[in-house]
Design brief:
This protein is an alpha+beta fold. Helices cover 32% and strands 33% of the residues.
Length: 196
């Protein structure tokens, strides 16, 4: 009976260690949430974003001010893509980019763009090129199916950027190994008692 207890304890300990090793080898410390495939923007289709009906709010009040959208050059798109990777995420890419002008003075202008291919909940950031040539990140006020809403304090080239979100998760391998070691110690104690 003592030998049987020892064999069972040894088998259980071995199973725990093997299972922990296999689990640890298969685990990953990074989980990636992938959004829809990002289409690389080119100057040929960079003008596809437009302003939604009643999509302009100036200093807190709905406005009928004219928003003028003009296409941008390939060089501007390439520059925006480089800025997106540097400022937003290595996975970031410009979906749409336009030069935006508003026919009214404002302190803050909220604009809702119709942007094909964007879906609610998608990871989106807006980049705006300031007058001095620097770029600022603007977190959208809202991202809907086919729409992106953002608030600006000035206007010029605006890029709608999509990116993938990566979230670090706790690495469970160390904890599994600790549990396995405790199990081995428990098996050793059981085996010792079986021989006494």
């Amino acid at each position: 009976m003592k030998k049987l207890s020892l064999v069972i304890a040894a088998v259980l300990a071995g199973t725990m260690i093997f299972g922990a090793s296999a689990f640890a080898a298969g685990s990953s410390s990074t989980t990636t949430t992938t959004t829809k495939p990002v289409e690389q923007v080119t100057a040929a289709h960079s003008y596809s974003a437009n302003v939604a009906a009643a999509g302009v709010v100036i200093d807190g009040a709905a406005s009928s001010a004219t928003v003028t959208l003009a296409p941008v050059s390939v060089a501007e798109v390439n520059n925006a893509n480089a800025q997106a990777k540097a400022l937003v995420a290595p996975t970031a890419q410009v979906l749409h980019m336009v030069n935006v002008e508003l026919g009214a003075k404002f302190s803050k202008a909220q604009i809702t763009f119709n942007v094909s291919g964007v879906v609610a909940g998608q990871k989106i950031m807006v980049l705006h090129q300031c007058a001095d040539g620097s770029w600022e990140k603007i977190t959208p006020d809202a991202v809907g199916n086919g729409t992106v809403t953002a608030t600006f304090t000035s206007l010029s080239p605006v890029a709608i950027v999509a990116y993938e979100a990566s979230a670090k998760t706790a690495d469970v391998a160390p904890y599994v190994m600790i549990i396995a070691m405790i199990s081995v110690l428990g098996a050793a104690v059981c085996a010792k008692k079986a021989f006494n």
